[in-house]
Structure formats: C-alpha cells, structure tokens
Amino acid sequence: MPIFSAPDGTQLAYRRTGDGAPVVCIPGGPANSLYLGDLGGLSTHRQLIVLDLRGTGQSAIPEDPSTYRCDRLVDDIEALRAHLELPRIDLLGHSAGANLATQYAARYPKKVSRLALITPSTRAVGIAITAKTRCELAQLRKNEPWFPAAYAALEAITKGTGSDWQAVAPFLYGRWEAATHQHHAASQPRNTQAVALFAAEGAFTPQATRKALTACTAPVLLLAGEFDLNSPPQSTAEFAGLFADATFVVQPKAGHYPWLDDRDQFVATTAAFLG
C-alpha cells in the first residue's frame, strides 16, 4: 500500500481502487478501512483513495495517543491531499468518518470540491439522536424474526440497563444474513485506544464547526438508510440543513451500510452526485 507522512511524522497508508478521478474516502470506527470494500462498485466510476486512519489497518500507531482525537486527524487528510498533489478533493466520509470529513470541510472549505456524507454521525455539528427516535425507527423491522431479541437489547441500552451492542447489530443492515453477519464481525474496531480517544474532550466544537461550514460552498450529499438506527434519516436531514448546497437522499430498505443493501441504488446515487 502507498505510504505518506502525517504532519507529526506518523506513517499513514492508503489504497487505490478503480480508475477515474479520485475520491478520498474516510472510514468510520475508527476501524480497518477494508470494511468499505469498493463501496458496492463505486470504483467502476471513480478511483477510490481509501485512507487507513492512524493506528488502524496498515497505518502506524502514533507516538502521541492524543492525536487519535477527531479534530487532530483533520490534518492527516490535508497531508494526504498534499501528497496526492490535488488542489481540491472530492471527499467521502462514512459513519464516524463523516465527523472527520465535516471538520475538514470546515477547516479547509476551499479545498473541497464535493463532499459525500454516507450514513453520517452528527456529533461534529452537535445534532443529538434521542432514544425515542431510535426506538420508533426500530419498529419498522418488527416483522423480522430477529426483532424481539434485538429490540429488547435496544430498549435496555436506551434505558441504561444494558450494553449488548452486538445484539442490536441486525438493525444496522437492510438484511440480516450470513454475508452481513460476516461484514459486521469484520467491521468492528480493533484499536480500542483509537476508539476511546476519537471523541475525547475537545474533539468536537459544534458551534464553531457550524459557523465555519457557512464558508463551504461545495455541493454536499447526505445519504441516509431508511432503517439506520445509528444515523437516522431524521438527524441526517437536519444535518443537511447546515450546508448551502445540500442534497439529502434516503435509500429505501437500507441500514448503516447502504452499499451492501442495494449496491446498484447506492452507486447510482453516489456516482451521479460525484459526477
């Protein structure tokens, strides 16, 4: 895999998939970026430049653990842009990676040509997701055979009496089957320190980020999955309202990984936006 140096000297890796104009892709987690695959075949339309965040995948563990904090990761993206010798980048962030992509757009608004936020976390801009919203959305799956156990676990988590996050995994997928079981297992973060420090105190300054985003005039796609408890359509729609030029799309019968639930629909939407 190609390697470049972050501003603090940490060696970071990325992989190239496909041909065409590049799109820099930021995974969530922080987890091994391999879970993104080729985003359902988006690589047939654009070259995907998929970053391994520091301490994950093939990227090195930093000497200073505090650099795992989301706001401090922003300059890793800027270093990648400079390494690629691109004056501006199309940037795609998934899940927690959308926090990082959003903060990059806020800090470097003139260096983003297009921004795609896929089933995005909203912590960077301070949009809260209530337990009521998650539980109401979960009811869309009440006819699924796995629903009773998964919903009981969800209720326990929202009430603070349980913590069985694995039991609610079916809500993250449009179909809960062998392939998605395997994907869920493979997508779990392995670097617990990176996960713990990603959202450490100071990682997010929502009011400052919202203000800075007013300078971002790039077109933005915000894509939600109809069934996604992690990034509900309601919160994603609110997120879209913060951008001057936003396109908000809900992919039917999709969860948190829409390229797995309906790859053709996901690729058609995302490729059309990216151009």
Q: How much helix is in the residues?
A: 25-40%
Uncertain stretches: none
CATH class: Alpha Beta
CATH topology: Rossmann fold
Which series of helices and strands comes N to C?
Answer: EEEEHEHEHHHHHEHEHH
Q: Can you count the helices?
A: 10
What is the rounded distance between the termini?
27 Å
Largest sheet: 8 strands, mixed
Which strand order spans the largest sheet, edge to edge or round the barrel?
1-2-4-3-5-6-7-8
What is the name of the CATH architecture?
A: 3-Layer(aba) Sandwich
Determine the strand fraction and express it as a percent band. Answer: 15-25%
Rg, please?
Answer: 18 Å
Topology, please?
Blueprint lengths: L2 E3 L5 E7 L4 E5 L20 E5 L18 H15 L4 E6 L2 H11 L4 E7 L12 H8 L8 H13 L18 H9 L5 H7 L7 H8 L6 E6 L7 H8 L5 E6 L6 H4 L1 H12 L1
Parallel strand pairs: 3-4, 3-5, 5-6, 6-7, 7-8
Antiparallel strand pairs: 1-2, 2-4
Helix pairs in contact: 1-2, 2-7
Protein traits:
single chain; alpha/beta; 275 residues; Rossmann fold
Overview of this protein structure:
The chain has 10 helices and 8 strands. It is an alpha/beta fold and 275 residues long. It has one domain (3-126, 192-274): Rossmann fold (3-Layer(aba) Sandwich), CATH 3.40.50. It has an 8-stranded mixed beta sheet with strand order 1-2-4-3-5-6-7-8, with helices on both faces. Helix 2 (97-107) packs across helix 7. The longest helix is centred in the first third of the chain and has 15 residues, at 70-84. The mean pLDDT is 96.
